[in-house]
Amino acid sequence: MARRPATRGRPVDLRALLDELPAGTTGDVRVVTSALTTIRFANGRIHQPHLERSTHVSVRVAEGKRLATATGSDASREGLSALSAAARSLARIAPTEKKFPGFAAPRGRGPGPLAFSRATAELSPEDATQIAVEILDTAAAQAPGARVAGAVTVGMDELRVGNSSGLDRSTKRSLAHASVLVQRPDRDPPVSGWSEGAHWDAARLGPAELGREAAERMARTTPAPVEPGAYPVVLRGPAVADLLRFLAHLGFAANGEVEGWSCLSRRRGKKVAPSTVSLSDDPRSRDTIPQAIDYEGTWTARTPLIDHGVAGPVVTDLLSAGRLGRKLTGHAQPPEAPWGDYGPLPSNLILEPGSASEAELVRDTRRGLLVTRFHYVRVVDPGRGVITGMTRDGTYVIENGEVVGPARNLRFTESVLTALGGVTLLGKERRAYSDGGGVVTTPSLATRSFRFTSATLF
Amino acid sequence: MEELIRTALEVADGPGIVHADVRVVAPERFVSLAVRNGAASALTDARTEALGVRVRTGRAWGFATTCDLRPGPVREVARLAVRLAEAAGRHAREPLRVTEDPAPRAGRYDTRLRRDPFAAPFDSLLTLLTSAEKALHVAREVRSGIATFQAWEENKWYGSSDGASFTSRIVHVGAGLTATAVRGSNVQRRSAPSSHGGDFSQAGLEFVEGLDLEARAPEIGREVVELLDAPVCPTGPTTLVLGSGQLALQVHESVGHAVELDRIFGSEAGFAGTSWVAPEKIGVLRYGSDAMNIVADATEPGGLGTFGWDDEGVPAQRTPIVHRGVLVGTLSSRESAAQLGLHHSGGTARASGGDRAPLVRMTNVNLEPGEFSLEELLEGVNEGVYLESNRSWSIDDRRLNFQFGTEFGRRIVRGELGELIRNPIYSGMTPTFWGSMDAVGNRSTRHLWGLPNCGKGQPIQGARVSHGAPVARFRNVAVRGG
After folding, report:
1. Interior angle at CA B351, CA B346 and CA B352, nearest 5
2. Which CATH number fits domain B2-229: 3.30.365.10, 3.30.2290.10, 3.40.50.720, 1.10.10.10?
3. Radius of gyration from C-alpha coordinates of chain A
4. Span B336-351, average pLDDT
5. Strands (E), A91-228
6. In degrees, to the nearest 5, what angle opens at C-alpha A424 toward C-alphas A418 and A427?
7. Any CB–CB contact under 8 A between A27 and chain B?
8. CB-CB: which of A90, A136, A378 is closest to B392?
9. How far apart are CA B403 and CA B395, in angstroms?
């Protein structure tokens, strides 16, 4: 094979690539480098340790207003030139994007240093393994005889973006997230408990606490069947995070607004939730895994989405800002496929906390269900914001303001707007949850009515 | 590439290492052309390279990967894979066992195709997509039209410490149309030839041309507008006839994933979930009616799950999964097969690229055809619904309780397809549902559908799989309007 030039692995010369674009051609380039270790465990042992050193490059060019992208894994000068040629070749045959405003010149001041942990970025394979072992050992000690499974991911990634209008910016993230399932498959029906968390500093992940919490959330007695129907519910953080992710996709992604199928299209500027509900996207916050720029190099900033119950506008990238005639909010995703349906998305969601403990949320609910997390949530009807999914890993019956016992799992089919509109109380403790893409930082909450449409056997 | 593989295997040959294998996927190419509302949407040409080293000690695996294919970085990831396996092994109480399987020596597999999608410029394809997308906009209610084409080329080199080696070049292509019509909060979607990006095959451009997108587009546009005014699907238990495309997804979710042996043994418990199938029930479990016959066939021409050898070097196989309603087999890797006490792997350990470790994945998991034409299936229905083209899909973590919505439905009245219905949803429990299947369509109703987006594993891996499915009839199914 041909040897790569010695520049590979050194700082990438984006400026030279962009300067050599022919007249009439503009472009932007993204280079994402990452070093991540994932330690998966199941059945009480580490079964899939995975370490990845990767580089992802994406070159987007505009021949006039004809856009195309080429991506690859080679950030050398030679590799970038090849991608530029491939993108230009596709762009020449692309339909014209009439509303494309051009690549943005660098404007505004960036944030100061964001939260970053060098120690987390540099954790060794043995360190990552040790975090997994701590979770495993704690969970196993708390729940003897249970089967423990989960994963730990630690490491860092760096995004650098340059464009032909003179922009050249970068952002670096340290990240750590972990999840743990404690399960008794030998019970009939099987029971399980769950915990998870994410942080930019692995030292604050709290592996032992996660293991303990998952074990505590596993039912000690036999779950009872519950009739499907509408119930008040207390949703723990992982369940709320799922609802908010879908709200972001269905209510605040720009494509839904452009094409009219967003569930908030006709409700912007109107009250959609109680005044206690304030949701923002805040990529600079220490409460998320911070990043300074989006995938077009726009500085990130706090964007209110629901402000004291009132729905705000969608978030934008260059193309959607042009199409909608709105300001650029800095929410570009990578321009390459497959990012089809939704377009720019808020991916550092933060829900403001309230003041209730979990016990108070339960007490306030009187009669209903306590849900730890959801599974396999999918869109049923985007226009009304209806989604469906299963409860999983710790569902409990609440009667007279107390948890009285575990419930068998149920399927919900409900609008995210109904769930949010019915919020009665918000928890005071917040935690960050990562699904590998974005981060949601949220407390638990109680909501008035949540529709369950069928039940399963466990 | 052989030299790089040798380099990695030499470094991964330390004390305590009982096996190592190396895969290089270079180049892996992915081209996506999409036209959305007359504009180019994410036209992408991706060319990547990756090398993955997997090692096994007597007690644990280790896997490390790099996209930098120079000897230095390759040696480094080989060392890291060893360190990971050693670190994991220190906490393992039980030895790790795998099956012994025949290994290829210099094997070669190539996709058979007539027109290589990567050998010609994309001009004419983009013209076709532009024109087909435009033809979706038959009325102002059609607020979104999308026409897409995707093609993948995977060039793979595999070598292992036990002397196995093979190379392959696999090409997948596919295309599709989606129209979305909006009136207030009433949002309807219609796709062709199927949702989730269309239909996909291991083939060349001849497959895409055969989809005839331009001719189908106006009808899809008309149907999505008609759906806005259609009555909501009636509610209640009824007879359900499922179209082939929706049945393919039903097989995928309620059979394919449930019979992955790693799920059955709990390896995926912390993420994707487990299975309602208990290991001791394999061979005796009643999965469905006598009309239900399922095979996993990694040898079927045109399938996205068709290959020469899996990513552990095990030859492609055709494995019976359900025979006359009884579970008789599973999808397996060398580790999970050994766990069940089998002597050989089912050959379904697949990785989504050189940067991922192989997992138990579906290949082409097919519902075998029965003996009825569509007309004969409908004749047996006094009152019911016919549903096709998936719109939403969800199933619990043991693959029991499912709920599917489809884009399109028609009432069945006295054996005939009747009025259009919107927002249909059906739900059920896996064994009850398959137990209610009383008639399966014949070969004329069968199609091999390609699904390019099956997610599993951490870090996530997207697998391309296929499902052969005819139409089929199910009695007493819970159906409602969403």
Report:
1. 135
2. 3.30.2290.10
3. 23
4. 98
5. 147-163, 168-184, 191-199
6. 115
7. no
8. A378
9. 6
pLDDT digits (tens, 9 = 90+) for A5-48: 333 445 577 888 898 899 999 999 999 999 999 999 999 999 99
* CA–CA min distance B376, chain A (Å): 32
pLDDT in the model for residue A40: 98
Note whether A340 contacts B34, CB cutoff 8 Å. yes
Pick from B67, B76, B182: CB nearest A261: B182
What is the C-alpha separation between B336 and B344, in angstroms, rounded? 10
Residues of A in contact with B265 (CB under 8 A): 43
Instruction: Please give the residue of chain A at the shortest CA–CA distance from B45.
Output: A70
> How close A287 gets to chain B, by Cα (Å)?
23
Of B70, B180, B429, which has the smallest distance from its Cβ to A4's Cβ? B70
Inter-chain CB pairs, A–B, below 8 Å: 295
Beta carbons of B65 and B311 less than 8 angstroms apart: no
- The pairing of strands B107-110 and B165-183 is parallel
Rounded Cα distance, B370 and B365, in Å: 16
Counting every residue, how long is chain A?
A: 458
Q: Please confirm whether the linkage preceding B234 is cis (ω < 30° from 0).
A: no
A32/B contact by beta carbon, under 8 A:
no
Q: How far apart are CA A162 and CA A171, in angstroms?
A: 12
pLDDT, mean of residues A302-316: 97
pLDDT in tens, B253-274: 999 999 999 999 999 999 999 9
SS (H, E, C) B344-386: CCCCCEECCCCCCCCEECCCEEEECCCCECHHHHHHCCCEEEE
Cβ separation of A52 and B40 shorter than 8 Å? Answer: no
Is the Cβ pair A45, B91 closer than 8 Å?
A: yes
pTM: 0.96
Residue ranges per domain, chain B? 2-229, 236-481
With CB atoms and an 8 Å threshold, state whether A457 touches B400: yes
Residues in chain A within 8 Å Cβ distance of B460: 436
Based on its alpha-carbon atoms, the radius of gyration of chain B, rounded to whole angstroms, reads 23
* Structural domains of chain A, ranges and CATH numbers in brackets: 14-217 (3.30.2290.10), 229-455 (no CATH)
* B41: nearest CA partner in chain A: A340
> Which of B394, B453, B461 is the best mutation test for A, with the most CBs of A within 10 A?
B394
Contact predicate B269/A149, CB 8 Å: yes
Put simply, the chain B residues between 238 and 257 with a CB less than 8 A from any chain A CB are none
**Residue B221: per-residue pLDDT:** 98
User: Comparing C-alpha atoms, which of B250, B315, B312 is closest to residue B287?
Assistant: B250
Q: How confident is the model at residue A340 (pLDDT cuts 50, 70, 90)?
A: low
Q: What does the alpha-carbon distance between residue B356 and residue B420 come to, in Å, rounded to a whole number? A: 45
